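Internal QA ticket QA-208
Title: Verify multi-chain structure generation after dependency bump
Assignee: T.L.

Test input:
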Amino acid sequence: MAEKLILLVEDNPDDEELTMRALRKAKIANEIAVARDGAEALDFVFARGIHAGRDVTRQPAVILLDLNLPKLGGHEVLRELRADPRTQLIPVVVLTSSSEDEDKLRSYKSGANSYVRKPVEFNSFANAVGQLGMYWMLLNETPPR
Amino acid sequence: MRFLFQGTLLQKLLGVVLLSALAALLLAMGAMLAYDLRQYRESGFADLATQAELLGRASAPALTFDDVRDAQESVELLRYRPRVQAAALYNARGKRIASYARDPAATFPTLPESDGFRVEGDSVVGFKRIVDDREIIGTVYLRADYGLHDRLLGYLGIGAVVIFASLLAAYVLSRPLQRALTRPLLAITEVAIEVTEKRNFALRAEKLSNDEIGRLAEAFNTMLAEIGRATRELEASNRDLGREVSERGRAEEEIRRLNAELESRVKERTSQLEYTNAELEAFCYTVSHDLRGPLRAIDGFSQALIDDVGDALPAETKPYLTRIRAATQRMGQLIEDLLNLSRVSRGELQRADVDVSEMARQVAADLQLREPERQVEVKVWDSMRADADARLLRAALENLVGNAWKFTGKAARAEIEIGEMRGELRRVFFVRDNGAGFDMAYAGKLFAAFQRLHSGNDYPGTGIGLATVQRIVQRHGGRVWADSKPGRGAVFYFSLEPAEPAAKFGT
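Actual output:
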């Protein structure tokens, strides 16, 4: 069984770096793919565009999805993922700065598996990301193919 | 008499005149006839009595001596009196000794009767005693024509002629009278018809006489003048009414126009407000996302520096990184509080029955969970309820109880009480603590955003909590106020409904 893959959809390089650092600190050694906008995220999972030729059978075990993204927003990405039979079962964790009820509602309605706020305080942030990594990489069973 | 109630006035007048004349004539003629017939009868009787007396005197010798021939001659003389139909002489013993009759078939009474005359059919019959020297020597019998029938016929003929002539005269004479009566009446009638048809109340009936009809014309004219005046007044008042109605119509039109204008202005303002609200929401979203990102980076990379190279930094420089992190975290909290403030201002107010006691206990329990080391005696009254938006009320309680929690941090025995006062007009909830309190001189600044009455070193905070509470309470139509003394604790009161229920709008 191949190593589990994490897809991080994040446009902010600072947040990307901090997330990577938090995962490293939590000793998560899995491969982490990064998409810098919504369109790239979809290209990745459907192996097209700049990700054409990627091994499409190797899908992420979890997608960490920011909501405020250039080109295609997080909500749209989530909807497209859930609309396609190839990706509709991939676990998606919304990882965002937003604490708006509206965002939470829309995310869950669109089929998010979890909603986690990015705290400003780094230790809390690192703690949250570390726990997410542990949970989705070690505890959670991916849906069968 | 029915004709008196039909036909024209002229016919009626004529009828009355002729009837009156006829009645007068008939009465007069009847009286004359009665008088004349009585006279005629009396004179007829007297005439016959005289005739019998004369015959008796002339026949007295013959009767005394029973001379039948002489007696017969005396009786025969009566043939020169054509009125006399028959006559006879009876002697003292009652025996008829002589007789005369115009009609040979006439019969005579066998015995004489007592003196006197009477009418028998169309004749007058009577007997007369012949007295000589106080001795009855015989009786005369006479029968004569009465002539009443002829006389009556004559009278009727004359009467008919007289009545006809009189009625004719009455008729002819009454014509001008009738005309004099009816002409003024007709004149009034014509004026009345013209007034009705042309609605010209200026017309007047001509007064043609000084009698009752003249007075009628005067009264009619007075009435016309009165009607004319009343009509003019009515028309004037109608015109006034019409003007008023049209003015009212214009006013209503104006009101409708103003209403429409107001409505469009309200619509415009509403859309402006909606636009502003949308902008505000977009702004808050941006703040929530984009302002926190850089803060997280500053905080995160400061921590990374501490982790990676912290030990290599000079001892006096290393705390700077910690300070940077503390500052970014305060900034993060500020953004959080601002977002909360804006969040309680947005969205629909959803009122429902809320168990305030239960909610207050949960809020206190959360605070205890966050700071397990704190020893605070929290007293919450039982069965407090409110008609409020549960999410907003919870936010208000979190702020108020949270403040009480925070400001009792240095109290020897921290006490917090959450209760209510039920007034006649509205119910007022309160949160009381025995904490630091504040100077009432600054009470006016309590509920303004970013206003703090304590230094951040003593009691950390952003100064947005009470502004949020006020916003929540105001959205419910209520009021929030406080009472305190420095070092003696504070009481915050709030209501969730207007003092006057009628002043409740929309929410």
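Spot checks passed. The longest helix of chain A spans residues 122-139.
Status: verified.
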